[in-house]
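Re-running the complex after MR caught last week's input typo. The corrected sequence lines follow. Everything else is unchanged.
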Amino acid sequence: MFEKVQLPISLNQQQLFQNMKITPELNNYDVFVKTYESLWKKLPNLVQIEGVFKLWKNTFGKEIHEDLAHTSHLVYCLVTLGKDISDQCTAYFAERDYVSGMMIDSIADLLLFNASNNLYTLVCKEISEKRGYGLTRRYSPDDRTISIVHQKTILDVFKEDDLSIDIGITEGYMYNPLKTLGYVYGADRDLQMTGVDHDCRYCSNINCEMRKSFKKSV
Ligand code: SF4
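Corrected-run output:
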């Protein structure tokens, strides 16, 4: 089964400022607040947040990660913000508006992260609650434990579907638009549902600012 959804803009100023280490003690704190307020108003014109997921028989799991070798199915997921927000980020840096450039980039990362969490809620409902599959934690291609080549593996799974989302891939296996995430879950009716999406203990994203948020959930 395959499903495509529009996802809401989920953004929290406090969370963003924490990620960017912006505190009221900074001399230019007011500048950051004003920049945030200005960017917040522009966001609806800069992002179109879409997600897709597909429950599919497990043919590539072993190649992606040894933990995924034995589940009967995989759930392939893609989330994207579209290209406009990255274009705007590039434009800000070209104009030497570095505060806006850095902040819009951090906003995009947070939007993408939160959109993937929103998609997880839908995946749980459709795959687990309605169809009875337990899910593993999330497995994302990266530079360390899961080859970045699998960004293409994930995209290719959707080739035969009416994806209607303009996502391409470069020769270096980077998604285009840049602010796109691809990842998989193992799925099996014999698997106990853990409800854990992010398991930071096994994630190689050592610089992830969200790591501390999930400390208590694992
Ligand atoms: S470090 Fe944790 S929160 Fe960040 S991406 Fe990895 S699993 Fe998710």
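None of the earlier attempt is carried over here. The chain has six helices and seven strands. The beta strands are 2-6, 50-57, 73-80, 134-139, 168-169, 175-176, 180-188.
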